[in-house]
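Before we proceed, please read the two lines closing this message. Report back on whether the structure tokens fit the sequence:
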Amino acid sequence: MASHKIVKVAGAQPTTEFELTVAQALVDLENNVPELKAEMRPLQITAAKEIDIGSGKKAIIIFVPVPAQQAWTKIQARVTRELEKKFSDRHVVFVAQRRILAVPSRRSNPKQPRPRSRTLTAVHSAILEDLAFPSEIVGKRTRVKVDGSKLIRVFLDAKDATSLEYKLDTFSAVYKKLTGKAVTFEFGSSAEVF
């Protein structure tokens, strides 16, 4: 049974059929690929969602616990490639399951100050880093249009252009779904960005 690969936080929704399918795919990958067996054994996921990214394509977002994210990044490129083979015609992205804490008010008097990593801005920035993981973000620009809408332009490292070019629309759609913010990803040389 693949349910041991899914760990839920207290108060989370129960495990769905799709999450079990993704967990089973991870278990199969762990059993069938000997190089990944040792690294994947202790790793778990918290959730998995399938979203529509337009033009009939879908993407799979796999949420991982924040403490285990460092371990996931070591094997993420290989696991992503294998899962994209298994779930054909779907892109796979890994995002850490982060929590946003509300701004403390006069009524809610917390005993500790809110950590900077739990602010809305920090969480949205971390999600952006997670999405673009194999590549690095070399620059960000926020364009505010006349009507007040904002568009974020994210510049990725140009050396990863060949491996990630086909996923840029997926990154934008997933980020829009998770945060509600419009973003475009581009590859640019560092001289262009700065």
About this structure: Strands lie at 47-54, 57-64, 90-96, 137-144, 150-157, 183-188. The chain has a mean pLDDT of 86.
